[in-house]
Design brief:
binds guanosine-5'-triphosphate; 44% helix; Rossmann fold; binds magnesium ion; Four Helix Bundle (Hemerythrin (Met), subunit A); single chain; Gyrase A, domain 2; 6-stranded mixed beta sheet; alpha/beta; 7-stranded mixed beta sheet
Amino acid sequence: MQDTIVALSTARGRAAISVIRMSGSQAVQIAQKFFYPFPSQPNLLKVGTLKTEYFDEHAMCVYFAAPHSYTGEDTVEFHCHGGTAVAQAVIEKCLSCGARMAENGEFSKRAFINGKQNLTNAEGIIEMIDAETASAAKAGANLLENKLGKQIVDLQDKLLDIVSACEVALDYPEEDIELPTVDTAKSQLKEVGDALGALIATSALGKVARYGIDVAIVGKPNVGKSSLLNALLGTDRAIVSDVQGTTRDTLSESVNYRDIRFNFVDTAGLRDSSDKIEMEGVKRAKRAADSADVVLHVTDDPDDRSVYPTIRPQIRIYNKKDLFDKEPCCVDSLAVSAKYGSVDIIKETLYDMFSAGDIETSDLLITNERHLDCLKRAKQQLSEAISACGATTLDVVTNATKQAWETLGEITGTSTNEDIINRIYSKFCLGK
Ligand SMILES: Nc1nc2c(ncn2[C@@H]2O[C@H](COP(=O)(O)OP(=O)(O)OP(=O)(O)O)[C@@H](O)[C@H]2O)c(=O)[nH]1
Ligand SMILES: [Mg+2]
């Protein structure tokens, strides 16, 4: 018999209400010991009295009968007054009557074990809880709705068809039945491989939807990098001064713009110095630029044509245009005044550069590194199967195809090992 588990499902602290959730075969019996009158039927929210050790709480209670609940088990929810003390007293009562404290994500893990959700659904829930923008939430919602899961199962079915056709040919080599030609198998495998390729190709946009765009602001001292950061954020975040070398450490801050998260990093001005701390700052600035999605290379000299040495894409920003008496020399750059003008053109350019507008119209994006890794491995295994077609025996093709089928199963959890499952569910907060 599974333990009956309990946890606070709403956020901790001062709030209007708290929801305490209990799940397991004993959930109803335990709740009936201290909630009166207990609801006479499932799915009915009932007002009543919840007797804790310390006080009587005027609360509401609902139960869901297995398997028609989130976890697939009997589940009881108490909707109580908010605040830490009330929730604590109710949980204590549940514990003293036979429940035990749930672990992080244990409700969802039980839902997975009971076939109520697959791994991508669970990961979708995590993405939704973590989402800072509507695009990130939408990506999570798509996973939760099983859009990826369905596609994966379709592709797995196609692979299984290929495998079974090949196996018939292997088992009955002498029979005069219609055998799949190697060419047919090859073109079917290619079709699945292309579908995987198309999914993999969405991962760049998926990363933008989920995490946003990492932007490093670099340039010589005093060109106005920190002023630019402040203007981009719309807040007075970084110290600005006319002293060269004001910013020493990197300073990261995010802002949402047209539903995309921009993660800006302001950095120390690039120059040689005998100051140990300043040189460490310069080192960090270079590191920030090397790990960013894009670099804003800031200058305040309209004749500056220099290029920042990086393999990352970069945009040259001519700042302090209010002081210029001529047009900047390079046209494929942006000219702004961080101090006196709008800098929206920078965000707009970045938005277009990363095709962020496509997120809204896209149906399904790969936003999860684990899924991407599985897709890439499965594609590789299919490539091996394809090159084996005609070149070697049919069982080599079959084995590679079976491997790709297994790898795809890791995405939804049908062939995932226990460690990975545990790792995914441990990312959930308590009570989920
Ligand atoms: N006129 C004018 N002055 C600006 C503009 N942007 C920044 N400044 C001034 O330029 C000076 C340097 O600005 P900061 O933003 O501190 O420059 P920084 O690049 O961060 O400098 P370090 O941190 O030392 O590398 C300050 O006095 C700002 O007020 C601008 O658009 N126009
Ligand atoms: Mg600065």
